[in-house]
């Protein structure tokens, strides 16, 4: 087939682009060093405190963990069901609303009407402070909310699969993609119908919730620490599941070669259901954690996050779970540190640009290939 | 609605047997309308007009004509955009979901080129004539389309979808940015207006009716029209009449788009496009320059999208990046193409009209009408509506908040079409490329080894 020829041509074609990216990255690094040292050499250099860089990086890691967590599910559905699921972002929102409804119910039950709590402050006029949901004051409520976010979103993901995707299992990826856009519209606007359209505060503010790490000059919020622990914990659980359980092996087999997996007797539908449960659940959990980080909630935040999640998944290599995690971290860091060089209006655009560059230069992603390993 | 019911009525006609002649005449008429694309489009439009008239005739002629104007405008602009998308997706199989971005580039470029260098408010422009602005807008959209085509050469359809979506978001975020606005003002002397957007130049159609577009100073032509249809005649308000004037322009552009795309689709270039859609490898093996065709299709399609953006949003007085150019706009256009059936130009026109009337504008109007009939307080939130345990109160909440339900309905329609009728209303018609009809095979052909 002459694949070696074409890959050489491809590589040759990719080289100028790659060279450009390497040069640009080098220039940015030199500039960063000059900025940190406080020297100005014409256009490059300037001043930048180590503290600011540190906090930018830390914020990037936290956001990146949340995006990576959401990306795992997207990557899994892509590799096992072979379509880009555009309703994934709205699963993220569902997790946030259902999880915070439950967390509020536990944190504020008794003083505040149930309908205000379950709708995450859409009904009634209870303030976030009155409900008092915060990891330091109501850790139990926050934890149960996380579990609820996982469970509710997993159930919804399976229900969506049964209703929308299962009847068209044998159709091409684009048809499924269009169906998922329909599913996304349905879920997003049911959320708006049920929970209202306004952006509102969720978490209470608690004194002394910042923990300072003096040597690094970092100020770490208790909620950021919670996200770090929860996200890393879920990722490790995911890793253990994929590598050491029968289900994980089956999933990797399905992702690697579906026909071969079917021949060896892997129960495909059960694996698909498990994929939706895990992928959807992780999406819900990540949405819940994102709200914990940002402190506000809005019915379409997951949809707005979707493109960043796609960027992460593509960066890591679509289909690879570990790629999604690494991609999430890279996108998170690009998102926050790009403000050193460009106006903050553009940080999201910078993340998308990184995604597009990656697709142009190395479409298979950092980790390459469609494998769930 | 009578037109929509007609096919069903005529189908049952022959079996009823009674009055044979008039039934068959109707049937013949309907058959002729189905055969002719124009008849189909006009029939659909008339059915929509009838339904809209039924909904609002109690409010007087002015509101009926006003509603018809809104529906026709939306139908035409969706049809224009759907045609442009159909060239890329329907004909060539390029899954471009960055339509909103290309439209934004077109209309913004037009605005920046045409706006006065020293406006009373808003960002400055270059102050060039409108035709220059329109050509520049199409050119910029085509240029961006050429850039977007580069990934299309290498990527699978779903990756291309994500790239084009990302590109359209980059466009929107850039237009939103005040830093980008200032940068453009410093370098080329024309700005985007950032998040506040910019006012659009005067619509020449408006100048046809009013001297310098100023209300109260009609031209000779305006005097004539306003005298017959306006407050002295039928009592239709001036903005609605001017709107109808603009609709005539849009209809002319629609015919132009349609003829261009039909011509393109039937040309050798069009057959290559379809070959690429069906099987890229085969087209490549037959010596077709697949990459060049893809780039050309992207450039032509995006230029048309830019023009559609200019015709649509350029006539709306003011453009702003959010929420006008959110990806949702792209999905609207996609739904219009899918309803009509991707690959069919008539289907795209029909899909645009049906989408605008039935899915986009219809639910709002119906919801508003129903809400007017309910005599109940609207509860402040969904939870309050449920807690009231009163179906009427719940209905009041639902009709007051019909917008989200409309999107849910839209999603359901999309999923339904993809499940049951992936080919749309008209679908991909049988396109004969061979000189002889290959569909009629002799019996027993299957046993032929």
UniProtKB/TrEMBL annotation, chain A:
<dbReference type="GO" id="GO:0015192">
    <property type="term" value="F:L-phenylalanine transmembrane transporter activity"/>
</dbReference>
<dbReference type="InterPro" id="IPR001851">
    <property type="entry name" value="ABC_transp_permease"/>
</dbReference>
<feature type="transmembrane region" description="Helical">
    <location>
        <begin position="91"/>
        <end position="110"/>
    </location>
</feature>
<feature type="transmembrane region" description="Helical">
    <location>
        <begin position="271"/>
        <end position="291"/>
    </location>
</feature>
<dbReference type="InterPro" id="IPR052157">
    <property type="entry name" value="BCAA_transport_permease"/>
</dbReference>
<feature type="transmembrane region" description="Helical">
    <location>
        <begin position="130"/>
        <end position="160"/>
    </location>
</feature>
<dbReference type="GO" id="GO:0015808">
    <property type="term" value="P:L-alanine transport"/>
</dbReference>
<keyword id="KW-1133">Transmembrane helix</keyword>
<dbReference type="Pfam" id="PF02653">
    <property type="entry name" value="BPD_transp_2"/>
</dbReference>
<dbReference type="GO" id="GO:0015190">
    <property type="term" value="F:L-leucine transmembrane transporter activity"/>
</dbReference>
<keyword id="KW-0997">Cell inner membrane</keyword>
<feature type="transmembrane region" description="Helical">
    <location>
        <begin position="346"/>
        <end position="363"/>
    </location>
</feature>
<feature type="transmembrane region" description="Helical">
    <location>
        <begin position="225"/>
        <end position="242"/>
    </location>
</feature>
<dbReference type="GO" id="GO:1903806">
    <property type="term" value="P:L-isoleucine import across plasma membrane"/>
</dbReference>
<comment type="similarity">
    <text>Belongs to the binding-protein-dependent transport system permease family. LivHM subfamily.</text>
</comment>
<feature type="transmembrane region" description="Helical">
    <location>
        <begin position="303"/>
        <end position="334"/>
    </location>
</feature>
<feature type="transmembrane region" description="Helical">
    <location>
        <begin position="172"/>
        <end position="191"/>
    </location>
</feature>
<dbReference type="GO" id="GO:0042941">
    <property type="term" value="P:D-alanine transmembrane transport"/>
</dbReference>
<feature type="transmembrane region" description="Helical">
    <location>
        <begin position="57"/>
        <end position="79"/>
    </location>
</feature>
<dbReference type="GO" id="GO:0015188">
    <property type="term" value="F:L-isoleucine transmembrane transporter activity"/>
</dbReference>
<protein>
    <submittedName>
        <fullName>Branched-chain amino acid ABC transporter permease</fullName>
    </submittedName>
</protein>
<keyword id="KW-0472">Membrane</keyword>
Automatic annotation (TrEMBL), chain B:
<keyword id="KW-1003">Cell membrane</keyword>
<feature type="transmembrane region" description="Helical">
    <location>
        <begin position="241"/>
        <end position="261"/>
    </location>
</feature>
<feature type="transmembrane region" description="Helical">
    <location>
        <begin position="126"/>
        <end position="150"/>
    </location>
</feature>
<feature type="region of interest" description="Disordered">
    <location>
        <begin position="1"/>
        <end position="21"/>
    </location>
</feature>
<keyword id="KW-0472">Membrane</keyword>
<dbReference type="Pfam" id="PF02653">
    <property type="entry name" value="BPD_transp_2"/>
</dbReference>
<dbReference type="InterPro" id="IPR043428">
    <property type="entry name" value="LivM-like"/>
</dbReference>
<feature type="transmembrane region" description="Helical">
    <location>
        <begin position="94"/>
        <end position="114"/>
    </location>
</feature>
<protein>
    <submittedName>
        <fullName>Branched-chain amino acid ABC transporter permease</fullName>
    </submittedName>
</protein>
<dbReference type="InterPro" id="IPR001851">
    <property type="entry name" value="ABC_transp_permease"/>
</dbReference>
<keyword id="KW-1133">Transmembrane helix</keyword>
<dbReference type="GO" id="GO:0005886">
    <property type="term" value="C:plasma membrane"/>
</dbReference>
<feature type="transmembrane region" description="Helical">
    <location>
        <begin position="64"/>
        <end position="87"/>
    </location>
</feature>
<keyword id="KW-0812">Transmembrane</keyword>
<feature type="transmembrane region" description="Helical">
    <location>
        <begin position="38"/>
        <end position="58"/>
    </location>
</feature>
<feature type="transmembrane region" description="Helical">
    <location>
        <begin position="333"/>
        <end position="360"/>
    </location>
</feature>
<feature type="transmembrane region" description="Helical">
    <location>
        <begin position="295"/>
        <end position="313"/>
    </location>
</feature>
<dbReference type="GO" id="GO:0015658">
    <property type="term" value="F:branched-chain amino acid transmembrane transporter activity"/>
</dbReference>
């Amino acid at each position: 087939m002459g694949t070696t020829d074409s890959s050489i041509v491809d590589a040759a074609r990719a080289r100028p682009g790659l060279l450009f990216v390497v040069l640009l990255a080098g220039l940015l690094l030199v500039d960063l060093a000059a900025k940190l040292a406080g020297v100005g050499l014409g256009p490059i250099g300037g001043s930048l405190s180590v503290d600011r860089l540190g906090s930018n990086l830390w914020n990037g890691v936290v956001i990146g963990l949340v995006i990576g967590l959401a990306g795992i599910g997207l990557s899994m559905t892509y590799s096992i069901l072979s379509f880009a699921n555009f309703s994934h972002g709205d699963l993220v929102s569902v997790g946030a609303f259902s999880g915070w409804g439950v967390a509020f119910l536990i944190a504020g039950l008794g003083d505040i009407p149930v309908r205000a709590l379950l709708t995450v402050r859409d009904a009634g006029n209870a303030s976030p402070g009155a409900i008092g949901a915060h990891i330091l004051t109501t850790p139990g409520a926050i934890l149960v909310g996380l579990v609820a976010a996982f469970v509710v979103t997993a159930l919804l993901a399976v229900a969506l699969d049964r209703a929308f995707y299962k009847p068209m299992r044998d159709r091409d990826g684009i048809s499924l993609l269009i169906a998922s856009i329909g599913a996304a519209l349905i879920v997003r606007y049911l959320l708006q119908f049920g929970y209202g359209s306004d952006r509102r505060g969720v978490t209470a503010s608690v004194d002394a919730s910042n923990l300072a790490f003096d040597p690094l000059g970092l100020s770490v919020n208790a909620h950021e620490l919670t996200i770090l622990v929860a996200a890393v914990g879920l990722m490790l659980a995911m890793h253990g599941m994929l590598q050491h359980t029968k289900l994980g092996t089956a999933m990797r087999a399905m992702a690697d070669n579906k026909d071969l997996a079917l021949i060896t007797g892997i129960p495909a539908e059960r694996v698909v259901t498990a994929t939706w449960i895990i992928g959807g659940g992780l999406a819900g959990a990540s949405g819940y954690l994102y709200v914990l980080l940002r402190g506000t909630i809005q019915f379409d935040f997951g949809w707005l996050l979707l493109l960043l999640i796609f960027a992460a998944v593509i960066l890591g290599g679509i289909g690879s779970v570990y790629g999604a995690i690494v991609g999430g971290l890279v996108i998170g860091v690009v998102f926050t540190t790009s403000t050193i060089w460009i106006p903050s209006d553009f940080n999201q655009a910078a993340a998308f640009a990184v995604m597009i560059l990656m697709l142009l230069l190395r479409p298979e992603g950092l980790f390459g290939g469609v494998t769930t390993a | 609605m009578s037109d929509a019911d007609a096919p069903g009525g005529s189908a049952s006609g022959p079996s009823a047997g009674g009055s044979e002649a008039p039934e068959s005449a109707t049937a013949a008429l309907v058959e002729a309308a189905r055969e002719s694309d124009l008849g189909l489009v006009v029939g659909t439009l008339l059915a929509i007009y009838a339904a809209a008239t039924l909904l609002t005739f109690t409010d007087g002629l002015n509101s009926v004509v006003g509603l018809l104007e809104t529906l026709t405008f939306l139908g035409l602009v969706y049809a224009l955009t759907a045609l442009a998308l159909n060239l890329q997706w329907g004909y060539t199989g390029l899954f471009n979901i960055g339509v909103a971005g290309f439209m934004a580039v077109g209309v913004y470029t037009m605005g920046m080129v045409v706006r006065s260098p020293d406006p009373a408010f808003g960002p400055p422009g270059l102050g060039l004539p409108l035709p220059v602005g329109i050509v520049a807008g199409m050119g910029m959209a085509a240029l961006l389309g050429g850039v977007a085509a580069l990934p299309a050469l290498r990527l699978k359809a779903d990756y291309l979808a994500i790239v084009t979506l990302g590109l359209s978001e980059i466009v929107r975020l850039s237009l939103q940015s005040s830093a980008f606005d200032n940068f453009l003002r410093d370098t080329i002397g024309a700005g985007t207006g950032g998040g506040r957007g910019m006012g659009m130049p005067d619509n020449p159609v408006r100048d046809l009716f009013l001297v310098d577009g100023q209300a109260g100073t009609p031209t000779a032509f305006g005097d004539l029209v306003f005298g017959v249809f306006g407050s002295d005649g039928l009592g239709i308000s001036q903005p609605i009449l001017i709107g109808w004037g603009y609709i005539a322009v849009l209809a002319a552009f629609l015919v132009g788009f349609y003829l261009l795309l039909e011509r393109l689709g039937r040309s050798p270039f069009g057959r290559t496009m379809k070959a690429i859609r069906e099987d890229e490898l085969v087209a490549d093996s037959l010596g077709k320059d697949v990459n060049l065709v893809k780039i050309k299709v992207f450039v032509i399609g995006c230029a048309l999208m830019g023009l559609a953006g200019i015709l649509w949003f350029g006539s709306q007085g003011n453009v702003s990046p959010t929420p006008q150019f959110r990806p949702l706009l792209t999905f609207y256009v996609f739904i219009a193409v899918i309803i009509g059936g991707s690959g069919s130009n008539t289907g795209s026109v029909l899909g645009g009209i049906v989408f605008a009337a039935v899915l986009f504008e219809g639910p709002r109007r119906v919801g508003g009408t129903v809400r007017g009939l309910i005599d109940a307080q609207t509860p402040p939130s969904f939870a309050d509506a449920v807690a009231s345990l009163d179906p009427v109160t719940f209905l009041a909440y639902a009709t007051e908040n019909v917008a989200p339900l409309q999107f849910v309905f839209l999603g359901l329609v999309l999923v339904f079409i993809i499940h049951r009728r992936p080919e749309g209303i008209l679908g991909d018609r049988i396109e004969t490329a061979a000189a002889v009809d290959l569909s009629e095979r002799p019996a027993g052909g299957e046993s032929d080894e």
